[in-house]
Amino acid sequence: MSVGAWPPATRADEGFGSSPGRSTAVFALLSGPEHRLETANPAFFETVGAADRVRSGLPLAQVLPELAEQGFVAVLDEVYRTGRPRTSRDSRVLLGRGRRAREAFFDLTYEPRLDAAGGVVGVAVFGVETTGIRHAQLLAAEQHALLEQIARQAPLEQTLDGMARVIEKLSPGALASVLLADADGRHLRHGAAPSLPRFYTDAIDGIATGEAAGACGTAAHRRRTVVAADIAADPFWDGYHELAARAGLASCWSTPILGGDGRLLGTFAIYHRVARTPQVSDFGLCDLFAGIAALAIERHLGEQARTAAVAKEKAARADLAFLLGAGSVLAQNLDHTETLQRLADLCVPALAPLCTVDVVEDGQVCRVAIAAATVREQRLLAAHPPDTGAMVGRVLAGGGTEVARHAPADLWGGLGITDRLCVPLTDRGAAFGALTLLTGGGRPLEDRVVSLAEELARRAAMAARNARQYAQRAQLAHDLQAGLLLPDLPALPGAGLATHYHPAGEGLEIGGDFYDVFPLAGRTCWAFMIGDVCGRGAVAATTTALVRHTARAVARLLPGPAEVVQAVNTALLERPGNLGGGFVTLVYGHLAREDDRLTVELVRAGHVLPRLLGPGGAVTQIDAEGALLGLMDDPGVEPCRLELRPGQSLVLVTDGITEARSAAGAMFNDEGLDGALAAVPPNADAAAVLDTLTAAVRAFTGPAAVDDDQAALVLTALSK
């Protein structure tokens, strides 16, 4: 085989050997049993790195002793002696000595050289360097392993550390480092540097990006690779020369790690302990691993963002659940003060360890609620009056939410409070109170707590306003209703009197049921009535007042109950249209004591039939004719006269009792009324009769609120 048949030799790159995927062909002719170097191609000399010391005609073991030490001369001896060729694949060869030595791999062929007579006169050595191919294969395997780590979502520190070690494995003498950019891209933080001294990585941790900020800081700023072939003489390393010298670093090149959107993610750097300039293969390898690092960092940042989003969503759901639960708790009670105490209880410990609620009452700021984890803290908190001249005062004056952080802990005497939050409680834009959260001991007031407190205060203010309005409305209805009923029961001659009134629902509206008892001439004769006005509220109240006051005004002027009721009917027919046009049911009568007897004259106008209860429990319905009032000129009422003997009771009720319903929907009816009265103990007074009746109604309806007003009036004849 002629030397010219081999391709031209190529120069072997320094550092990583030949470029990944490329190969170099070498050729040498050796003669004689001493294997004297007869000739070789230039690639042979460049590959072995001994062009300056190899001379033709000298034994190979003399000019390249390192090859002899590795057994190559023994192979040549065998081929020369036997005349048989020899081949080997991926033979490992250490080329050069000392710090210049490098590892290489070759596919080698040893062919015997024959003379004309067939005798062996030497050996021809042909080789193809496979170092680049082997490196490419190793690089591909390591790259695959790193990508698998990224796909498995291995910790970023583990992936970057593994990548740095791969670089150092592929490039003996190299020291790899990865720095990670802050979110703003202005500083670089330590990522991985398995072979750099700890003091060095600590010193550059947090280095700022910018011109003349070392190789890494400058590369991050310029967004391109920066090379410092000789750190000691590089102006970009001003201020870091002593640090680099102490770490034994002589050269460095740094490549920025950029995301898919061009965002700076960090830097990838390779250091050497000798001054040197990177080769093309070095730049290619840096770009490759910078891309892998970018993928790992972006995957890590994406996972961080996903985790943060999940945590944020979870916190948002928890906050929403807290607010929904708090809204339910605040709406459970319609007492204004209790609502504000529940507000304080909801805040501790969910939002802060301590809480106060202050409100303005009669021009003064009063503390109405406190909450704390311990009794001691509650006492200390209660001992501090509202700071009307400071935060609470400003918030109540319309200043909005205020937050005070990092205040001296001794201002609150033993509570250790450092952070305060004060949120207004508003009603129609005006602050009527303030919610104050207090915390300390390393538990700062986060923005999330501020937002939650503001929303909770808004809901609590609405609940407190509703409770206050409910209380005001209930009190108004109670006061108006009291004005339509007897404030005190009068003492009747020879008779006991008992009355009962229970409003429908929660008592927020004025009912339509009413009763009245008032004296006539000489106080020996008394008028009594019980009635039911169609409807509820203010209109029903005016109609009730019209009926009662008309009866009281004419009763002493007219001869009997029928005429009084006729006058009431006329008044109802003539009332103004804005006072409503509903009808009225009524039982009206006169009670007189004559000697030892009680006589009763009454009329019924569309009302529930009166009952006469005997002392032995006998119940008699009194059927008096009469139509509803307020609908026609003549209601056609007919007087009914009866005598009450000792122990007998006249029982008058409204339809709220007879039409009361059980939980199953059944109606109490007349049968229930008669049955309840029949169960009255013998010789019961008026109060006992009424108690027995109302107890029976409650037992029938159960705990549910009644849907109609209930009224009853009992007159019982007394013994002498």
From TrEMBL:
Residues 492-717 form the PPM-type phosphatase domain. Gene3D superfamilies: 3.30.450.40, PAS domain, PPM-type phosphatase domain. Residues 155-307, 335-474 form the GAF domain. One of its GO terms (molecular function) is phosphatase activity. SUPFAM superfamilies: GAF domain-like (SSF55781), PP2C-like (SSF81606). Keywords: Hydrolase. This is GAF domain-containing protein.
